[in-house]
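pasting for the record
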Amino acid sequence: MSKTTKKAIANLGNMKVNELQAKFAEVTGETTRSPNRKFLVRRISETLQAADAGAKVTKAPEAAAPGADTEAAAQTESAAVGGKLTRLEVPELQASYLEVVGRPTGSTNKAYMVWKIREAQKGRIPVGPRKSAHREGVTFKVLPLRMEAVVVDKLDEAWRSRGIKSRMEFFRGALGHYLKELGAEDVAALFATASAEAT
Protein backbone atom coordinates (compact mmCIF):
# COMPACT_ATOMS: atom_id res chain seq x y z
CA MET A 1 0.00 0.00 0.00
CA SER A 2 1.37 3.43 -0.92
CA LYS A 3 2.20 6.07 1.70
CA THR A 4 -0.48 8.34 0.26
CA THR A 5 -3.16 5.68 0.71
CA LYS A 6 -1.96 4.86 4.24
CA LYS A 7 -2.12 8.55 5.17
CA ALA A 8 -5.62 8.93 3.65
CA ILE A 9 -6.89 5.94 5.62
CA ALA A 10 -5.28 7.19 8.84
CA ASN A 11 -7.00 10.56 8.38
CA LEU A 12 -10.44 8.91 8.33
CA GLY A 13 -10.31 8.51 12.11
CA ASN A 14 -10.28 12.29 12.53
CA MET A 15 -13.28 12.95 10.29
CA LYS A 16 -16.81 13.72 11.46
CA VAL A 17 -19.70 11.60 10.21
CA ASN A 18 -20.82 14.16 7.61
CA GLU A 19 -17.24 14.39 6.32
CA LEU A 20 -17.03 10.59 6.11
CA GLN A 21 -20.31 10.50 4.19
CA ALA A 22 -18.93 13.04 1.70
CA LYS A 23 -15.66 11.09 1.41
CA PHE A 24 -17.67 7.89 0.90
CA ALA A 25 -19.49 9.49 -2.05
CA GLU A 26 -16.22 10.82 -3.48
CA VAL A 27 -14.38 7.50 -3.23
CA THR A 28 -17.07 4.89 -3.97
CA GLY A 29 -19.30 6.89 -6.31
CA GLU A 30 -22.29 6.01 -4.11
CA THR A 31 -24.21 8.15 -1.63
CA THR A 32 -25.08 7.08 1.90
CA ARG A 33 -26.87 8.50 4.93
CA SER A 34 -25.41 5.87 7.24
CA PRO A 35 -24.22 7.36 10.55
CA ASN A 36 -22.20 4.21 11.27
CA ARG A 37 -18.58 5.36 11.44
CA LYS A 38 -17.22 1.81 11.44
CA PHE A 39 -19.08 0.98 8.22
CA LEU A 40 -18.08 4.23 6.51
CA VAL A 41 -14.40 3.92 7.45
CA ARG A 42 -14.31 0.25 6.38
CA ARG A 43 -15.87 0.87 2.96
CA ILE A 44 -13.75 3.95 2.25
CA SER A 45 -10.57 2.14 3.35
CA GLU A 46 -11.37 -0.90 1.22
CA THR A 47 -12.08 1.25 -1.84
CA LEU A 48 -8.89 3.27 -1.38
CA GLN A 49 -6.88 0.06 -1.06
CA ALA A 50 -8.59 -1.31 -4.16
CA ALA A 51 -7.73 1.79 -6.16
CA ASP A 52 -4.15 1.65 -4.87
CA ALA A 53 -3.81 -2.01 -5.85
CA GLY A 54 -5.38 -1.35 -9.25
CA ALA A 55 -2.91 1.44 -9.97
CA LYS A 56 -0.01 -0.98 -9.48
CA VAL A 57 -1.39 -3.50 -11.97
CA THR A 58 -0.59 -2.44 -15.51
CA LYS A 59 -0.66 -5.64 -17.50
CA ALA A 60 -0.07 -9.32 -16.92
CA PRO A 61 3.61 -10.25 -17.07
CA GLU A 62 4.88 -12.33 -19.97
CA ALA A 63 4.80 -16.11 -19.64
CA ALA A 64 7.64 -17.50 -17.60
CA ALA A 65 10.65 -18.66 -19.56
CA PRO A 66 11.55 -22.35 -19.56
CA GLY A 67 13.22 -23.26 -16.30
CA ALA A 68 11.63 -20.37 -14.34
CA ASP A 69 10.78 -21.26 -10.76
CA THR A 70 7.32 -22.30 -9.61
CA GLU A 71 6.72 -19.09 -7.67
CA ALA A 72 7.27 -16.93 -10.75
CA ALA A 73 4.86 -19.11 -12.72
CA ALA A 74 2.27 -18.81 -9.95
CA GLN A 75 2.62 -15.02 -9.99
CA THR A 76 2.12 -14.98 -13.74
CA GLU A 77 -1.03 -17.10 -13.43
CA SER A 78 -2.36 -14.87 -10.62
CA ALA A 79 -1.77 -11.72 -12.68
CA ALA A 80 -3.55 -13.27 -15.66
CA VAL A 81 -6.59 -14.07 -13.53
CA GLY A 82 -6.53 -10.52 -12.17
CA GLY A 83 -6.39 -9.19 -15.70
CA LYS A 84 -9.52 -11.15 -16.61
CA LEU A 85 -11.38 -9.66 -13.66
CA THR A 86 -10.58 -6.12 -14.75
CA ARG A 87 -12.14 -6.81 -18.14
CA LEU A 88 -15.49 -7.85 -16.65
CA GLU A 89 -18.48 -5.52 -16.70
CA VAL A 90 -20.26 -4.48 -13.47
CA PRO A 91 -23.02 -7.18 -13.57
CA GLU A 92 -20.39 -9.87 -14.25
CA LEU A 93 -18.22 -8.62 -11.40
CA GLN A 94 -21.21 -8.56 -9.05
CA ALA A 95 -21.95 -12.18 -9.99
CA SER A 96 -18.29 -13.13 -9.45
CA TYR A 97 -18.32 -11.24 -6.14
CA LEU A 98 -21.33 -13.25 -4.97
CA GLU A 99 -19.68 -16.52 -6.01
CA VAL A 100 -16.28 -15.83 -4.43
CA VAL A 101 -17.09 -13.61 -1.45
CA GLY A 102 -20.29 -15.48 -0.66
CA ARG A 103 -22.64 -12.51 -0.32
CA PRO A 104 -24.15 -10.01 -2.77
CA THR A 105 -22.94 -6.45 -3.23
CA GLY A 106 -24.72 -3.33 -4.37
CA SER A 107 -21.44 -1.66 -5.32
CA THR A 108 -20.87 -0.58 -8.90
CA ASN A 109 -17.23 0.33 -8.23
CA LYS A 110 -15.23 -2.07 -10.42
CA ALA A 111 -11.88 -1.48 -8.71
CA TYR A 112 -13.41 -2.18 -5.31
CA MET A 113 -15.09 -5.41 -6.44
CA VAL A 114 -11.95 -6.68 -8.19
CA TRP A 115 -9.88 -5.98 -5.09
CA LYS A 116 -12.43 -7.64 -2.80
CA ILE A 117 -12.63 -10.76 -4.99
CA ARG A 118 -8.85 -11.05 -5.06
CA GLU A 119 -8.63 -10.64 -1.28
CA ALA A 120 -11.24 -13.38 -0.83
CA GLN A 121 -9.36 -15.68 -3.20
CA LYS A 122 -6.20 -15.18 -1.16
CA GLY A 123 -8.04 -15.90 2.10
CA ARG A 124 -7.40 -12.44 3.51
CA ILE A 125 -11.02 -11.56 4.27
CA PRO A 126 -13.91 -13.55 5.78
CA VAL A 127 -16.33 -14.96 3.22
CA GLY A 128 -19.99 -15.89 3.47
CA PRO A 129 -23.02 -13.94 4.74
CA ARG A 130 -22.32 -11.32 7.37
CA LYS A 131 -23.42 -12.23 10.87
CA SER A 132 -26.68 -10.55 11.77
CA ALA A 133 -26.98 -8.52 14.94
CA HIS A 134 -30.47 -9.99 15.35
CA ARG A 135 -30.98 -13.01 17.54
CA GLU A 136 -33.66 -15.65 17.02
CA GLY A 137 -36.72 -15.02 19.17
CA VAL A 138 -35.63 -11.48 20.08
CA THR A 139 -37.51 -8.41 18.83
CA PHE A 140 -35.59 -5.14 18.47
CA LYS A 141 -36.83 -1.55 18.47
CA VAL A 142 -34.98 1.49 17.16
CA LEU A 143 -35.27 4.49 19.46
CA PRO A 144 -35.23 7.93 17.80
CA LEU A 145 -32.67 10.25 19.35
CA ARG A 146 -32.32 13.68 17.79
CA MET A 147 -29.58 16.11 18.82
CA GLU A 148 -27.87 19.16 17.38
CA ALA A 149 -24.82 18.20 15.32
CA VAL A 150 -22.48 20.28 17.48
CA VAL A 151 -23.72 18.46 20.60
CA VAL A 152 -23.20 15.06 18.96
CA ASP A 153 -19.66 16.04 17.94
CA LYS A 154 -18.80 17.05 21.53
CA LEU A 155 -20.45 13.89 22.86
CA ASP A 156 -18.39 11.72 20.52
CA GLU A 157 -15.19 13.48 21.55
CA ALA A 158 -16.04 12.83 25.20
CA TRP A 159 -16.63 9.06 24.98
CA ARG A 160 -13.72 8.48 22.60
CA SER A 161 -11.34 10.29 24.95
CA ARG A 162 -12.40 7.86 27.71
CA GLY A 163 -11.53 4.82 25.60
CA ILE A 164 -15.14 3.74 24.98
CA LYS A 165 -15.36 1.65 21.81
CA SER A 166 -18.58 2.97 20.26
CA ARG A 167 -21.45 5.40 20.68
CA MET A 168 -23.81 2.49 21.35
CA GLU A 169 -21.58 1.19 24.14
CA PHE A 170 -21.55 4.70 25.62
CA PHE A 171 -25.35 5.04 25.49
CA ARG A 172 -25.90 1.62 27.05
CA GLY A 173 -23.44 2.36 29.83
CA ALA A 174 -24.90 5.81 30.48
CA LEU A 175 -28.48 4.51 30.61
CA GLY A 176 -27.48 1.61 32.85
CA HIS A 177 -25.64 3.96 35.22
CA TYR A 178 -28.54 6.41 35.39
CA LEU A 179 -31.10 3.66 35.99
CA LYS A 180 -28.92 2.32 38.78
CA GLU A 181 -28.82 5.79 40.34
CA LEU A 182 -32.63 5.87 40.14
CA GLY A 183 -32.78 2.59 42.03
CA ALA A 184 -33.96 0.51 39.04
CA GLU A 185 -31.26 -2.13 39.61
CA ASP A 186 -33.03 -4.91 37.68
CA VAL A 187 -33.44 -2.77 34.54
CA ALA A 188 -29.89 -1.40 34.87
CA ALA A 189 -28.63 -5.00 34.88
CA LEU A 190 -30.25 -5.54 31.46
CA PHE A 191 -28.05 -2.82 29.98
CA ALA A 192 -24.95 -4.40 31.48
CA THR A 193 -25.93 -7.74 29.88
CA ALA A 194 -26.63 -6.12 26.49
CA SER A 195 -23.23 -4.37 26.54
CA ALA A 196 -21.46 -7.64 27.33
CA GLU A 197 -23.23 -9.46 24.47
CA ALA A 198 -22.37 -6.68 22.02
CA THR A 199 -18.61 -6.97 22.65
